[in-house]
Amino acid sequence: MPIDREALRRKLQESFFVEAKERLQAIDEIHSEWMQHSISSQSIESLFREVHSLKGAARAAGLHEQEALCHDWEHLLAQARHNPDLLSDDKVRWSMQQHAELQKLCHSIVDTPSTQVQVAPHEPKSSAKGTVRVNQQQLDELLHSTNTIKQVQQQLSTLQRKLHSQIRSRDVDMQRHQRSDSVVQQLHGLLPKFSAQQQSLVRELLSYADWAQVQFRHHHDKLIEQNRELSELAQQLRRDVDTMHEQLEEILLQPAARLLDGAAAMVRDLADNAHKTIEFVSFVDDIQIDKRMIDELRPVVTHMLRNAVDHGIVNRGVINVRLHASMAGRFELTISDNGRGIDIEKLYQVALKQGAISPEKKNLSERDKQLLMFASGVSTSDMITEVSGRGIGMTITQEILERIGGKLKIQSKPGQGTQFVIDLPTSMSTFQAVVVRCEDDTYALPALSVDECIRVSEQDITSVKGHPTIEYRNQQLAIIFLRDVLGYSRSTQSQDSYNIVIIHVHQESIALCVDELIGDQELTVKPLGAPLHTVQLIMGAAEDSRGYLTPIINPNDILRIIRLQSPSQHIASERSQRVHKQGRILVVDDSFTSRGLLKSIIEAAGYLVTTANDGHEAWNILKQNEFDLLVSDIEMPKMDGFVLTSKVRADHALNSLPVILVTALQSPEDQTRGLEAGANAYLVKSSFEQDSLLDAIARLI
Fold it and tell me: Is residue 486 situated within a structural domain?
């Protein structure tokens, strides 16, 4: 039988990818050790062995480019094994560049590598345990189906309990029937006293009563038997579903350290580009967490580390990351730096300028001011860059944490640094929720945010400054009506009592009034897809076993609304945001290709675009027409972008025009020069993404 060489080649390359992924991770850890400590002979030897093994694997898979890269890398390390002093700072950087290049080459082999999962089959003792490759999406769908079955099982148990309750009520009826037996016997004794016609009627009545008694007992016994069978079935289903669910969750568990893959290298690169000296230190307990949790948290870790480098540490400092188990089924992620801390007053002023605070709510507490960091478009950075400044990173971070059931605590002191502590579940399969009703609609509240559900009478409600208020644990809480927050009309009917859900958000308590408390439920969460993922107040939807979706209310949004603006203003602002303003933008670039690309991206977002070939032409256009924003290259003939920006800032009629510089110049000196010229945003073409540009435009217009 001839060998299928193409199939063999693919198999070898897939095997190489799996091996390379593990070895490259080991290499990254060695590089991180070099940056934190001195270079030891043992670490050089370990790195040499990893690279040598990679070269042999690449040769076997027929990957000549990867083999050649490893050969040059191995040559340097072979010399350094005997003379460690050869590994100067430049050589270490070169080694890290080889690592990054090899990662890119490896990812080009397999576009979407499958997830390796351990199999626990029922197999003969002589068989060796192995691995199979399972597509991650299929595994997620299987787990979702298991959660749905689990909900069916829970509803089945609820049905069984209702049936048991009916049987108990039937027991009372059975006792009544038994007491009626004496009445039937008395009627039998009185028969001779009746006339013949009356006796016939009474006998027919007694015959029907006897038959009804027999039928009642028969159905009662049958109901008891069916309840017993249903109970056994529900218990068996619960055991099987729980076992299957636990096994699937175990398959998805991975070492928590995977969350920090590449984090040290990223901090190192960001620090180098910013000309800062930053030490990255990590402490990770030996714990396992859900792979989906790791995937969700990576953007959170990335953003917080970028913030620490760009906003926190000035010139030299330390970033600490700690992962440890906090309690059963939960863990804590702590990210801290010893930098400048959060400038709360600057954050407050930026929020005022951006309109994130309503005019009548300007007098905010320090805690409320700190909450402004989660408002979209609010950033203390003086310029928008690829690293930071768009004011959406913390917004996205909070959205992710709310979606996966995380709790965030922030501590910051000026000049001493900032610490973020995130409490998270190790798994994210199901969602514990308190389900409530508002008019005819049902909503879910995250159970982690709910302190207590209470019912208060009209007499327990007092008025403080015109707001209905209740006393809860020695503090006065203003009642927030869910109807107002969601935009329903307020009920005019008087009530004797009110259903209150006490929500705890960012160390604050909120008394949320709902129409009805339905109860606690365990639900399967479905994230909101585009374009619904940006909708305020709703963080997702929970699906029950019948396929019905219940919106999940975002408690943090409720707090933001009542702290920064009134519910009615929130509804009005939501409606006003739907009206799209078609801004006019001038795009300046001497490259026909770049100019056409920028024009296409911006026009596709709904803006009106005018183009210019260089700064001189752009200046003439600006003097003759009105624009809402200027997007400019820097290196252009006649007049470059720096000069054009300076002229705009010096002109009385144009000095308020927002300017975005999109350029290939990426050094810190160039970015500083752009800031000094008066640019509002600085985006680098080499790492350019259209979302970065559109986010900057949306924020500045």
Answer: yes
The residue out of 409, 425, 441 marking a domain boundary is: 425
Spatial distance between the Cα atoms of 641 and 622, rounded to a whole number of angstroms: 14
Which residues are bridge partners to 132 per DSSP?
Answer: 117
Indicate if the pLDDT at residue 580 is higher than 60. no
As beta bridge partners, residue 410 has 420
Q: What is the pLDDT of residues 81-108, one digit of tens each?
A: 878 888 888 888 899 988 988 888 887 7
CA distances in angstroms from 512 to 155, 450, 482, 503, listed in the order given: 28, 10, 6, 7
Backbone conformation region of residue 235, classed left if phi is above 0, alpha if psi is from -120 to 50, else beta: alpha
What does the DSSP assignment read for 362-399?
----HHHHHHGGGSTT----SSB-SSS-SS-HHHHHHH
Considering the domain boundaries, does residue 243 fall inside one?
A: yes
- Both 88 and 220 in one domain: the answer is no
Q: Which two tokens stand for residue 384?
A: 């928008």
Q: Please state whether beta strands 330-337 and 462-464 pair in parallel, antiparallel, or not at all (unpaired).
A: unpaired
Specify whether 291 is located in the same domain as 307: yes
Q: How confident is the model at residue 400 (pLDDT cuts 50, 70, 90)?
A: confident
Query: Any idea what the CATH number is for the domain that residue 274 is in?
Result: 3.30.565.10
The torsion of the CA quartet 342, 343, 348, 352, rounded to 10 degrees, works out to: -110
Residue 387 has a pLDDT of 54
Same domain, 571 and 591: no
**Mean pLDDT, the chain, integer:** 77
Whether residue 122 lies inside any domain: the answer is: no
> Could you tell me the two tokens for 120?
């626990």
| Residue span of the structural domain in which 666 resides | 584-700
Give pLDDT tens digits for 189-203. 777 777 777 778 877
Please report whether residue 130 resides in a domain.
Answer: no
Give the span between the Cα atoms of 458 and 598, in whole angstroms: 61
Which stretch of DSSP H or E encloses residue 39?
Answer: none
316 vs 339: CA distance, rounded Å: 8
Residue 473 and residue 552 in one domain:
yes
Strands 538-543 and 549-553: antiparallel
| Cα(152)–Cα(168) distance, integer angstroms | 24
Task: Examine the domain organization and report whether 273 and 403 are in the same domain.
Answer: yes
User: Which of 321, 539, 513 has its CA nearest to residue 420?
Assistant: 321
Q: What is the pTM of this model?
A: 0.52
Domain count across the chain: 5
Answer yes or no: do 538 and 647 share one domain.
no
158, two tokens: 């609820």
d(CA 556, CA 399): 9
